[in-house]
Amino acid sequence: MTFSSIFSQTVKDLKTNFKPIFWAVFGFIVIPKLVISLINLIFFGSAIYDLSVEPFSWSRFSLMLLFGVISAFLFLFTLSGITKASVKKNKFSLADIKHHGKKNWLIYLGFILVMAIFLLGLFLLLIIPGIIFMIYWIFGSYVFLDEDKGILYSLKKSRQLVKGNWWKMFGYLILIMIILFIFAILIGIILALPILFSGNSIVYIAFDGISNLIVSLAFYGFLTLFFKNIYLEWKGKSKTDKKKKK
Fold first, then answer.
1. Does residue 126 have a pLDDT over 60?
2. Which of 106, 111, 121, 97 has the alpha carbon at shortest distance from 154?
3. In angstroms, what CA-CA distances link 74 with 80, 104, 115, 204, 243?
4. Contacts 24+ apart (CB under 8 A), 42-47
5. CA 231 to CA 169: how far, in whole Å?
6. For residue 152, is pLDDT > 90?
7. Cα angle 88, 134, 177; round to 5
8. Cα 169 off chain centre by
9. With bands split at pLDDT 50, 70 and 90, how would you rate the model's confidence at 43?
10. Is the confidence at residue 219, as pLDDT, over 80?
């Protein structure tokens, strides 16, 4: 598959599964952020906690720390749910996302921590090995959630799938990140314009929520489906090649 065909397929997949992805992102990512912004506004007078202009507050710090832990859990819950659902079905539901998220968020945390430690070690040794294996292991989470096998197996399988296509994968990653980065900037600029003409914190919270929703749909939805399509394509090709060798 070429980059354009993968991109087109991902657009189709996002349209097909837009409703469950939208409600997952809105319910588990956007709403909690809006709640914490409103709590900050009601109890502390401002929606944003800026230590550079505000005195340190243990109560507010504790609140932000608690929110950080909750946000991390919801991130793992949502991303593992969408990833698992997408590799198992072409069309999935919100119930599928919640089921897979509830079942897999903890082991997914373990996978991320182990891979992060490995990559950190490689980056500390030399930058180039870190970049090389970051690309080799790009399908690690998909293999891990798709085949329900160990972390080391998943990283090894990902490397096997990418082997021989490293530069292609590197190019795909750069292209899609540039596209999404430009998209995020444009959305940010458009949604930030009303805030420039209003000092209203409620207006800020509303537009921040909309911006967060759109960007989250792009990164949780589109990006996850984009690499899922490459993974399934290369996985299928790998099986075909093995059969031909036999």
1. yes
2. 111
3. 10, 12, 20, 23, 41
4. 46/201, 47/201, 47/204, 47/205, 47/208
5. 11
6. yes
7. 75
8. 18
9. confident
10. yes
Whether residue 111 is predicted with pLDDT greater than 80 in this model: the reply is: yes
DSSP string, the chain: --HHHHHHHHHHHHHHTHHHHHHHHIIIIIHHHHHHHHHHHHHHS-SS--TTTS---HHHHHHHHHHHHHHHHHHHHHHHHHHHHHHH-SS--HHHHHHHHHHHHHHHHHHHHHHHHHHHHHHHH-HHHHHHHHHHTTTHHHHHHHH---HHHHHHHHHHHHTT-HHHHHHHHHHHHHHHHHHHHHHHHHHHHHHHT---HHHHHHHHHHHHHHHHIIIIIIIHHHHHHHHHHHHHHHHHHHHHH-
pLDDT at residue number 50: 59
pTM, two decimals, is 0.87
- The highest-confidence range among 81-85, 129-133, 190-194, by mean pLDDT, is 81-85
Instruction: Give the integer Cα–Cα distance in Å for 103 and 202.
Output: 36
Give the confidence band of 104 by pLDDT, cuts at 50, 70, 90.
very high
Nearest to 162, CA basis, from 143, 177, 176: 143
* C-alpha distances in Å from residue 92, one per residue of 20, 36, 163, 209: 7, 30, 30, 25
Do the beta carbons of residue 158 and residue 139 sit within 8 Å?
yes
Q: What is the pLDDT of residue 243?
A: 58
Q: What CA–CA distance (Å, rounded) separates 133 from 115?
A: 10
Asked whether residue 197 carries a pLDDT value surpassing 60, the answer given is no
